Structure formats: C-alpha cells, structure tokens
Amino acid sequence: MWLDLLLLLVIAGIIAFAAAEGLARSAVMLVTFYLLCILLGLVVVTFDVGALLGGAINPGPSQASGNNAIAQSVIFMGILLPTFAFAVLLSHSTLEGAQVAFLGWGDNALGTVIGVILALAFAAVIVNVWGIVVSTPWEPYGTWSRMWSMYDQSILRPILLRLLLVFRRALFPLAASGYPVFFVPQI
Q1: Residue 42 contacts by C-beta under 8 Å, 6 or more apart in sequence?
Q2: Does 65 fall in a domain?
Q3: Alpha-carbon radius of gyration of the chain
Q4: What is the 3-state secondary structure (H, E, C) of 48-64?
Q5: What DSSP character marks residue 7?
Q6: Total domains in the fold of the chain
C-alpha cells in the first residue's frame, strides 16, 4: 500500500507538471527520459558498474550476482533521478513561453496525455528497480523486510510491470547488447 501511494504521488506529480508545461515541454521531458534511459542503460551495462563496485557491495560470493543487479539498479536510479530533474529544469528555463498558440487549451491537454505516458513509464521503472533491490535479502534485515512487504503487497506492481514490457520495446537500441536488469520485469 505504501509503495502504491508513493507511485501514485509520482504519477500525479508528473502528470500535473506536464499538464502545466504544455505540449512542447512535455514532449521534451518524454524524449529526455527516453534518451537518459538508453544512455544510462548502456553505460551501466557496458562498464558493468555494479561489478566495478562489487568488492564494496558484495558481502559474500553466494550473493554476488544478486548484489551486482542491486548495485546496477541503484546506480541507474541514483543517476537518472537528478539528471532527469536537472534536464527538466533546464528545458523549462530554455523553452520559456513554448506554447503551441493555435491549439489553445489543447496544448495543455496534449501535454497531459504525454505526461500520462511519461508518468507510467517512470513509475514502471521505479517499481521494477524497487523489486530488484528487494530481490535478495540484505542488512539491516528489518528495512529489507518492510521494503519487500511493500513491494509484495503493491496493487499497481503487476500493472506497471506489464507496462514496463511495452516501454522496454521502445528501448530497442538496448536489445542488441541485452536489456539491463532494471528493464527486465521482476515478476
């Protein structure tokens, strides 16, 4: 339930922001998110960032692959969130007054539609990364247990993981090298 509330807040916030921004800025946000997912996916997989930090993260050889996936996912989200926020703020300031005048109120309506697409893709990535983080128990166990129960009891999780499959198809440049673990639904 708590994870669902967090996801609903993220979805509502992105949709409201996109509706206020209008068509042009919302389209820039969607393209920015898409390009960042491809770029960061390639960087994390190509350089195997999780394995580079493996000695600092892996507590033992039995959990090496699980912690590598966790490390890759946490690094991906840790870079994606601030980079996306910075890109959105930058586009907001550079595209000042970028409304499509002849659309009138349709500019905000189309911005809302793009915001829905962006919000669902963003929430799908968040819930999948959450699933990767709780896929292997870690210390402190109490924190892991609470996060796992939030993930397990989520009502939105199955819906968003199916949407992740649709979003993953749009990330076709990653298909040749293999999709990063954070784009593979954790069912």
Answers
A1: 173, 174, 177
A2: no
A3: 18
A4: CHHHHCHHHHCCCHHHH
A5: H
A6: 1
Domain hosting 125: range is 2-48+73-180
Q: Is 119 inside a domain boundary?
A: yes
Looking at residue 38, its pLDDT comes to 92
| Percent with pLDDT over 70 in the chain | 86
Please indicate, yes or no, if residue 88 is contained in any of the structural domains: yes
- Measured at the CA of 91, the angle between CA 86 and CA 96, to 5 degrees, comes to 135
C-alpha to C-alpha distance for 156 and 177, rounded to whole angstroms: 29
Closest CA to 171 of 121, 133, 128, 98: 121
In this structure, are residues 100 and 23 in contact, taking their beta carbons and an 8 Å threshold? yes
Choice among 16-20, 103-107, 124-128 with the minimum mean pLDDT: 103-107
> CA 163, CA 160: separation in Å to the nearest integer?
5
User: How many whole angstroms separate alpha carbon 76 and alpha carbon 70?
Assistant: 10
pTM flag (> 0.90): no
| Helix ranges, the chain (H) | 2-21, 23-46, 49-52, 54-57, 64-94, 106-133, 141-152, 157-170
Q: What is the pLDDT of residues 21-62, one digit of tens each?
A: 888 889 999 999 999 999 998 888 777 655 665 544 444 333
The answer to the question of residue 64 being in a domain is: no
Q: At residue 178, does pLDDT exceed 90? A: no
Letter for the amino acid at 53?
A: L
Q: What's the pLDDT at 62?
A: 36
